[in-house]
Write a structure and sequence with these properties.
Number of strands: 12
Number of domains: 2
Mean pLDDT: 91
Helix content: 40-55%
Shape: globular
CATH architecture of the largest domain: 3-Layer(aba) Sandwich
CATH superfamily of the largest domain: Bacterial extracellular solute-binding protein, family 7
Order of helices and strands: EHEHEHEHHEEEHEHEEEHHHEHH
Structural class: alpha/beta
Radius of gyration: 21 Å
Distance between the termini: 41 Å
Low-confidence stretches: 3-22
CATH topology of the largest domain: D-Maltodextrin-Binding Protein, domain 2
Strand content: 15-25%
């Protein structure tokens, strides 16, 4: 983290006016799981712009970039060891460090429904055990994860045997459906579809449909879970901020900014649906019976893994906050 001293002119002005202290601006370098131009980065950009405006003269975030700067699956560890100050990442990209991290996806609740439960405070404690500061979440509740395919399916059972790209949180679900999950970065999905390495993938619906013209033919409804992107900060860098500034940043992020970011996604998801229609994706709407079964499998398979990796007690505690 860098400290940028105010200019000499300002310093002189303060001294002449009787000021007794010169303020520093604390600056943190940040990376994100997605590039700046990606639609999914809209929430990150809003977060950074608003924090920088709110704490101008005290605290600033320098957005260094995305995967072109640092591989997404290594960003959390880079923050933990001090190679980077901050990351906006996927909960599942660092579940090896904090097994409970992926629970952020394993709900159908909005940010405003989760906030009063104490979930984010508990996540702060769990991250601290691994020397990571959990600042908060860039939420995207309306951004559920759908199955996109290059072939026709009609029922839930038709997914069995298909090769589907996932991120780690989705592994238990896809396995439980009888499909074959493959973990790949987002940037490799198109090539894998084009080459026939995978039959489909799971992803949100925002902003990319036209990029998959020719390799995607069908999208399955309903989607599952919710999206949310944790903001992780290096412990040492965060500790160098005055405690009052830490508290004000955290309060602003969790109680003011995050709910407003969550609200922007409904319009974006609706726009994504229009883009899918324009690209010619055919919608597969599962029956009520298959829909209920999909949601049940999604919850039970994932939370069973959380119980194994994070411990039954922690899993039960967090599940009570995220699942009705």
């Amino acid at each position: 983290m860098k400290y940028i001293l105010k200019s000499a002119a300002i310093a002189a002005s303060l001294l002449l006016s009787g000021g007794t202290a010169i303020a520093d601006t604390y600056t943190m370098n940040a990376v994100t799981l997605a590039p700046r131009q990606a639609d999914i980065s809209r929430g990150f950009a809003m977060f950074i712009d608003e924090v920088n405006a709110k704490f101008d003269g005290e605290f600033q975030i320098n957005w260094r970039g995305g995967p072109e700067v640092m591989p997404p699956f290594g960003q959390a560890e880079a923050v933990r060891n001090g190679a980077m100050d901050m990351t906006f990442t996927s909960p599942s990209y660092y579940s090896g460090l904090v097994p409970a991290s992926s629970t952020m996806n394993l709900s159908f609740k909005s940010y405003n429904e989760i906030r009063p439960t104490g979930y984010y405070e508990r996540m702060t404690e769990l991250h601290a055990e691994q020397d990571l500061v959990f600042l908060g979440e860039v939420p995207a509740t309306d951004l559920a994860f759908h199955v996109f395919l290059n072939k026709q399916v009609e029922t839930l059972a038709d997914l069995s045997g298909l090769r589907i790209r996932v991120f780690p949180t989705l592994l238990p679900l896809v396995k439980s459906l009888g499909a074959e999950p493959l973990v790949l970065p987002m940037g490799e999905i198109y090539t894998a579809m084009e080459r026939g390495t995978i039959d489909g993938f799971m992803r949100g619906t925002v902003g990319w449909a036209e990029q998959f013209d020719g390799v995607v033919t069908h999208v399955v409804y309903p989607g599952v879970y919710r999206a949310g992107f944790p903001v992780l900060v290096n412990k040492k860098a965060w500790g160098e901020l005055p405690e009052d500034l830490q508290n004000r940043i955290t309060t602003f992020v969790r109680d003011d900014l995050a709910p407003r970011i969550d609200a922007i996604w409904a319009e974006d998801v609706a726009s994504g649906v229009v883009q899918m229609e324009t690209a010619g994706f055919e919608v597969v709407q599962f029956s009520d019976e298959d829909t209920a079964q999909l949601r049940e499998i999604a919850i039970e398979s994932a939370w069973s893994v959380i119980s194994d990796t994070a411990g039954a007690e922690v899993a039960a505690e967090l599940r009570s906050m995220l699942i009705d």
